[in-house]
Amino acid sequence: MSQREPRRPRYVDHDGFLMPMGFPVEGFDSGLGYRAAPGDIFVATYPKCGTTWMQYILWLLVNDARPLGPGEALTELFPHLEEVGAEAVRALPEPRLIKTHLPSSMVPWSPDAKYVWVARNPFDCAVSFFHHTRGFVRHYDFADGTFADFFECFIAGKVDFGDYFDHLLSWYARKDEPNVRFVTYEAMHQDARRAVVEVAKFVGGRAAATARDDACVQRILAETSFDSMRRDQRRWSSERPPGMPEFVRKGGVGDWKSCFSPEQAARLIEAFERRTAGTGAATLWPEILADVRRYARSADSARGPYDRRT
Q1: Which of 14, 80, 101, 139 is labelled catalytic?
Q2: Domain 11-307 carries which CATH code?
Q3: 182 beta partners
């Protein structure tokens, strides 16, 4: 029996930077040239690290906890810089709310803009990114791809928006700057109220005023809960073909266990330790990393459940 050829997602390679198919190259180039202005609020993440969750929290904070109305889409009100380009961002009402997946070295920078950076452990990130890539068939042509296929791309940094560790380390180096607020996805999951209040204080202005009203905070927590965000996903994303993973899929911590084999876990742990050595980033997620190390040492299974098609 012949061995199956590995599948790889399809990307647009723009000067060595991988992007989803259909992603406008001119928007990317234009976005890089945007000049950040005082009052701009950026949400910066590696893909599948809590981007939409934090975007909606911030949208609600600067809009008096008013939920998105019928027909409103977060993608238009809080657009992706490197997709829509500089002109579309400049046309936004102030304070401009801007999403980016760029490493800090490529993000338009101003000491008078605010940057909320959200990081997620690489194990859950990889699993969520795999499901995301399968689900957007027209962007990646990867509907029949397996986690084993995607893992090889992820650990090599050959996925859209580049290497996970390049992104992590670039932003970690700036996390203590006065106009940067660092939060982990796991901390948001553990105490969403605290995350909302602290981000509001950091942003200031209307966001801080909204967070001083407990009824508004309660509305924000309800609106940004997993059950709420899983409804009417056209608010966050274009529709996916039937049978494909949803854009908001699980929203938890620890889903890496559904996909990783012990061998894959060991390889990504080694990469994490090697890439973060000598930096404070090495101390992130100690409980998750301890759990992964225990699993990596196990001999219960030589293959993860997603080594087959899902």
Answers
A1: 101
A2: 3.40.50.300
A3: 117
